[in-house]
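Tip: read the tokens left to right.
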């Protein structure tokens, strides 16, 4: 469930190769992509995200993918031979360096779960990928303060937003992790209080972040809220803000990046 608007950028399908990768925290792997095709990518900052096509085997092809992943592009993808289809996942761009050109993408690596995390952990330089720029979910409306909420899957998005917010911005950011060692420097404005929450193994994802929002004493005025992560967290925070705090729906951007028990698309 999501109310994020998808923006199909004019750049279309962009092909790139892995330059290198590094472990930035115990469960976060940063993969750097490079190549001349990335010159066509417009750096938008904040939580700019892409449809990322990853190789499934040596037979994977990228040359027959559509330039857009809308309805027509998805139908075309389904008609491709299964043996040659890449795996498509949604990922936030962590950093863009247009002068090189390079982009960084952070992957949550939690054991052998899913496809993208293990791929990021094992991939070496030269591996080919492709991406389609889908714009930003961050779409603020005028508000006196900001409320950002995420679990570990939304950390790259929240970190990018905090990095690019005007320095006079005030508000709160709640970031829930399953390992406290996965904290990152988010370059938040001085007026934004970043709360790091670490859940226990027996607690469901989003439990602490949802509770923290319930318990937060709101400053004056209705905030603009951006909530991403596990589906129950995104839906639960939105429900609380709209039904119990009286926020207009237009003041809440939310997206379920993944759902417990299902492979994460992001």
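Filled-in amino acids:
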């Amino acid at each position: 469930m999501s109310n994020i608007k998808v923006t199909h950028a004019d750049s279309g399908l962009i092909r790139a190769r892995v330059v290198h990768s590094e472990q930035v925290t115990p469960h976060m792997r940063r993969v750097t992509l490079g190549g001349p095709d990335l010159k066509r990518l417009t750096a938008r900052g904040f939580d700019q995200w892409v449809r990322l096509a990853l190789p499934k085997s040596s037979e994977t092809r990228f040359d027959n993918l559509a330039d857009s992943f809308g309805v027509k592009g998805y139908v075309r993808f389904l008609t491709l031979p299964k043996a040659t289809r890449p795996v498509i996942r949604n990922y936030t761009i962590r950093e863009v360096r247009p002068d090189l050109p390079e982009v960084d993408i952070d992957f949550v690596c939690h054991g052998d779960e899913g496809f993208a995390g293990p791929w990021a952990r094992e991939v070496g330089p030269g591996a080919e990928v492709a991406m389609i720029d889908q714009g930003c979910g961050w779409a603020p409306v005028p508000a006196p303060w900001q409320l950002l909420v995420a679990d570990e899957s939304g950390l790259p998005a929240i970190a990018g937003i905090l990095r690019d917010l005007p320095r006079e911005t005030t508000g709160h950011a709640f970031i829930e992790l399953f390992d406290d060692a996965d904290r990152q420097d988010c370059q938040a404005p001085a007026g934004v209080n970043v709360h790091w929450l670490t859940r226990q193994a027996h607690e469901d994802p989003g439990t602490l972040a949802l509770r923290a929002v319930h318990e937060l004493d709101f400053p004056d005025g209705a905030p603009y809220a951006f909530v991403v992560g596990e589906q129950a967290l995104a839906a639960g925070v939105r429900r609380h803000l709209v039904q119990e705090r009286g926020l207009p729906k237009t003041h809440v951007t939310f997206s379920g990046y993944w759902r417990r028990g299902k492979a994460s698309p992001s």
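The mean pLDDT is 95. The two ends are 13 Å apart (CA to CA).
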